[in-house]
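Entry for manganese (II) ion complex. Fields follow.
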Amino acid sequence: MPDAHESGYSKADLKKIDSVFSVLEDKAQAYLDKPDLARLSEAALFGQEAHKGQYRDTGAPYFTHPLEVTCLLADMRLDTESLITALLHDTVEDCGVSLHTLSEKFGDNVSQLVDGVTKLTRIELQSIDTKQAENFRKLVVAMGKDIRVLLVKLADRTHNMRTLSGISAHEKRERIATETMEIFAPLAERMGITQFQHELEDLSFDILQPEMRQSIMTRLEFLTSENKNTIPDIQRILADVIFKGGIECDVAGRLKTSYSIWRKMQTKNITMEQLSDVMAFRVIVDDDAACYIALGLIHQAFPMVMGRFKDYISTPKRNGYRSVHTGVLGPMNRKIEIQIRTPEMHDIAQRGVAAHWDYKARQTDALQPRQAEGFRWVRELISLLELNTGPQEFLEHTKMEMYADQVFCFTPRGDLIGLPKGATPIDFAYAVHSKIGDRCVGVFINEKRRQLATELENGDQVKIITDPAAKPRSEWEEFVVTGRAKSSIRRFIRVEKQIEFSRIGKALLEREYRFRKVTFAEQHIADSVIAFGISKPEELYALMADGSRHPRDVFERLHPEMATGRKPAVSGSLSKEQPLFSISGADEGMAVQLGKCCHPLPGDKIIGIITTGKGVTVHTKNCSILTKFVEIPELWLEVDWPRGEGRRYAGRIKAIILNEPGALAALCTVIGQQAGNITHIQLTERSLNFFTFQVDIDVKDIEHIHSIIAVLRSNKYIESVSRRSL
Ligand code: MN
């Protein structure tokens, strides 16, 4: 450690820190140049200073932890920025160091990497079930945009697991171990870093299944007690067999870990007593061809155990792993497992993604096709093909493509919901439950009230506000992205529309009956609909509302004895009629629409016009568009406003104001004070002294807009105001 006399650490602490730092230095010196080593020392001093006075649960000075984490990454020969990130990975969360400071001192990349690690540290798995764990893994990957964030996080977790005994609370240890087993070990596996994977699995297994581990250990002791030198002996015999066949090799043997044995017992469904296959041997030979020759030599010498042979050289695993596996009844009649591979395959098996980066650093030319093929998963993970950059930039620019098109958000209970990118709270609500989607009226995202069209981001906590009386709105369709939300909204609107259509159609037919002075005969209609090729009166009504059948024809088919063949003159009696129908449910996209030309408000005298295929459009009685329909009285429909329903309608005004500072503000203020909500404002004309604005205001009814207009007219900035229609 460089000089640290003003550190404020005790001498004993400094010695502990120094000893880890010198280990790190040795590892880093093996592959980093002088300037990089100097940056590393600088970061170490900074980190030490930041963690001053902090201690680990184990009692060690805190800074030994980042140093150990960095050592793990130096073993993997990661780049300088990764190492510096590891040294500083807890400074933002635990020491209040700002990202700004980090980027000033160590560059933007380091500060972004530390930020990534910090964010990963903050999210915590709340409930463990398989689906949750899968989503959580995806969230972790999606948040670690730069693959180095994940490598640092894995190293951090590995060291934390090694020192977990320092935590006294059993529950906390179990939670961390579960999270490690469910999230981080599988992540290490997928990244091909078996070194981390196996250690994480074994350390978690010790905590999660202590009794099981103990009984496996006991069985292992029993199996190995007969001959203490079993492993070295078998090692020698295997090496001999291969060497005599003319192949140079290295053979290493080990006892399998308790976790891998337990996993095998689970998947193969075998009992402790049947457990015999506990030793694994690794044979390392020079090249691919030698792997197969060595395999042949072993199979000649020892009988093969059926079902154990696997060729991951010709068909690599998705994470890039390559080797030949076999199982034989080996020397001393012991069932053993053998993996045969080249040194390069071995390195990749240990270091996964990190090794891949390293190979890229050493070779200037592209990867051999076969090796590249083996890394298909890595390539899904990182957009390698687009990168013609040098090795230093390889990891830096590798983005996790895999889940780039997804976001993962939490429910208030902590469940994780996976959604496509661009998803909104409505999508989230429907993903939780269709009832929640149907009744959604608002949302809190990370405890802030937000709009329903807000795009969700990874890690957002989403709380949907529901109202049992609420209904899906057709405009949601414009921004939802999931099929589930889309189809739910459409289905709902289709049903609503159908109900509206049949309500309108029934009103039309009733009018026809009144005109003919015949009592409306529902039962007769129900009995006769078969003749129209449909099954329910509602369907018949809907046909009239959408204009595909005329009420007169329907009436005359229902009552052939009254057929006249002449066109009834409905229009004359129209104004004396009772309103047929109140227009509640007048939502956009539904069967009833308010005219965009005249913006009718409750209180306005209104009339409905039947539009083929669309239902009814409501206009004010003085709307100029009505002149088009004078000749077609059968399209006219008397309608009325619903009473006391409390919803708001769009009203439109035209305001001419003075070209003076404060005039537009005055216009908006008055409308606001009168409890009108401006939804749209547009400058339509400007002259030297006056501006003309068209303002859309959500109001309760015609009284409301009239009072707004009256107050506006009294304002000194406002020249004139009128209700606007076409
Ligand atoms: Mn840490």
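NOTE: The longest strand covers residues 649-658.
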